[in-house]
Specification:
It contains 4 helices and 4 strands; from the N terminus they run βαβαββαα. By secondary structure, it is α+β, with helices and mostly antiparallel strands. The protein has one domain: Glutaredoxin (3-Layer(aba) Sandwich). Helix 1 runs parallel beside helix 3.
């Protein structure tokens, strides 16, 4: 099976974005990450392609999955026969926002000290 072509529009530090990355790591999937915080042009591109402003958005083989969690990405890929189910737990939560502590660390500029594993 050929790996799908994946483009992920993600935020640098975000629980939902990290959940999407965790699924890609779990299945060792290659993907192109477009950080919509570091590069506003990627945010514009995401909004044009998805028709809405919320992230994460993941484009898989020309299908845009807008405002989606890692859990939903995994479920969509399995239901579309792009992945075989794997019970191995991901290395980060795949269905949650940042914690209050993560938000506080980001606000304080301590992004290197943020942990996404609960």
């Amino acid at each position: 099976m050929n790996p799908p072509k994946i483009t992920a529009y993600l935020k640098t530090y975000c629980g939902w974005s990290e959940g999407v990355r965790a699924i890609f790591r779990k299945y060792d999937l290659p993907y192109e990450e477009k950080d919509i915080i570091k590069n506003p042009a990627f945010r514009w591109e995401m909004e044009q392609k998805s028709g809405q402003p919320l992230s994460p958005c993941v484009e898989i083989n020309d299908t845009m999955l807008a405002d989606i969690s890692g859990e939903e990405v995994e479920r969509w890929m399995i239901s579309n026969n792009l992945l075989q189910p794997d019970d191995t737990p991901p290395d980060a939560p795949i269905d949650s926002a940042c914690t209050d502590a993560q938000h506080a660390a980001m606000a304080a500029g301590q992004v290197g000290k943020i942990s996404f594993i609960n």
